[in-house]
Please model this.
Amino acid sequence: MGERKVLNKYIPSDFDPSLVPKHKNTAAGRKAANKKDAGKTQIRMMIPFSMQCENCGTFMYRGKKFNCYKEDVQGSKAKYLGIQRFRFYIKCIVCSRPVTFLTDPENNDYEMESGATRNYEIWKDKNKTVEDEKEGKEEEEEMDAMKALENRVEESRREVEEQDRLEEIKALNSRHVRMENVETSQERDEAREEAEIEKEVQSVVFGKKDVILKRLSDDDDDEDFTTSYKNTDPPKVASSATPKESGGLKGVVLKKKKKKRKGEGSDGAANKKAKGGGATATTTTKAGDSDSD
Model:
């Protein structure tokens, strides 16, 4: 941050107190300001050309904005052919030296007056050389009639060449216009054909209105399931099927049957033995009866 009380101030060696404007809040300052600015108008403008300050050498480029004063030029150079000339006051952006320049209605330009030098501009030299050549040509034609005739013939020949060149350019432009019209018509026809093909495809694929899809209710699904379950018969297991031929459930059933058959076989053997014992007993009794007889 800067110093609050600003005790130390830099004063350059080329400082001129007389150039410092008086304070406008005092009576003397207002009087001096009114006397100094009499006939001046404060405006904001851009400088019309690049310049260099004569004091500090700072460059101020064309188009830079300034708050400046404008006044009418007085004296012999005040007007040119009845056109009023104006003087503009600006200050250097570094050293605040006053710089003045004037309007130049004769050359349709501005003229540097004091405080700075105008930078070199090449386009001014080009315009000046063209004007000088034109003036020299007119003077030469006034002095020599044959030279004037030759210049007129040369100008007429140049005009004919320019006219032919213009006609050629017009023909090329008209040809381009016709080609563009043909291309646009072809593109329009292609777009129309594509639209017709797309319309036909949509009518063939997506235009079937007879096909109607109905959603089945949940009750119908339950009824169909119950009826199908009632009508189905229980699975049958073949007794002659082997475990390899039948499934896993059938194999279990067959194994259970085999176990039952084994139990039944043991009971049957006991019964057979009992029957056999009875038979032997009967036979022995019969034999004993026969012996007793």
In short: The two ends are 160 Å apart (CA to CA).
